[in-house]
Amino acid sequence: MSKTVKMYTLSTCSHCKATKQLMQDLEIDYDFTDVDLLDVLEKAETIREIKKVNPRCTFPTIIIGDRVIIGYREQEIKEALES
After folding, report:
1. Rounded Cα gap, residues 52 and 68, in angstroms
2. How many domains, in total, are found in the chain?
3. What is the CATH classification number for the domain harbouring 34?
4. Would you state the pLDDT for residue 8?
5. In sequence order, what are the residues at sequence separation of 6 or more whose Cβ sits closer than 8 angstroms to the Cβ of residue 5?
6. Which residue blocks in the chain are alpha helix, DSSP H?
7. Is the CB of residue 36 less than 8 Å from the CB of residue 11?
8. Range of 67's domain?
9. What average pLDDT does this structure show over 1-16?
10. Three-state SS at 5
11. 61-64 and 31-34 as β-strands: parallel, antiparallel, unpaired?
12. How large is the angle between the packed helices 14-25 and 74-82, nearest 10 degrees?
């Protein structure tokens, strides 16, 4: 499995924490940004980026290859990683 995995998360979000744990359990390399911990300018830019793929800007927003998954959806995440 060599797909790029990028996640936009919040440091206080239980679904985000569960998604990070799932990636660790599956031994998947992933990149994440805790949006709530960014400074004002970085946060505004990151939110603009998220809204391109998730107009509602909800968390976690997970990008696996060219697939976007919104929320903790374990089965969808696994399928996206395997496809």
Report:
1. 11
2. 1
3. 3.40.30.10
4. 98
5. 23, 28, 29, 30, 31, 62, 63, 64, 81
6. 14-25, 40-53, 74-82
7. yes
8. 5-82
9. 92
10. strand
11. unpaired
12. 40
- Which positions ≥6 away from 58 have C-beta within 8 Å? 70, 71
Tokens, residue 60: 């976690």
Whether the model pTM is above 0.90: yes
Q: Could you give the percent of the chain with pLDDT greater than 90?
A: 95
Residue 2 binned pLDDT confidence (cut-offs 50, 70, 90): low
Q: Can you give the C-alpha Rg of the chain in angstroms?
A: 12
Query: Which residue carries 């300018």 as its tokens?
Result: 41
The full length of the chain comes to 83
Measured distance CA(21)–CA(51) in Å, rounded: 24
The DSSP code sequence of 44-67 is HHHHHHHHHH-TT--S-EEEETTE
CA distance 28 to 4: 10
Residue showing tokens 């927003």: 61
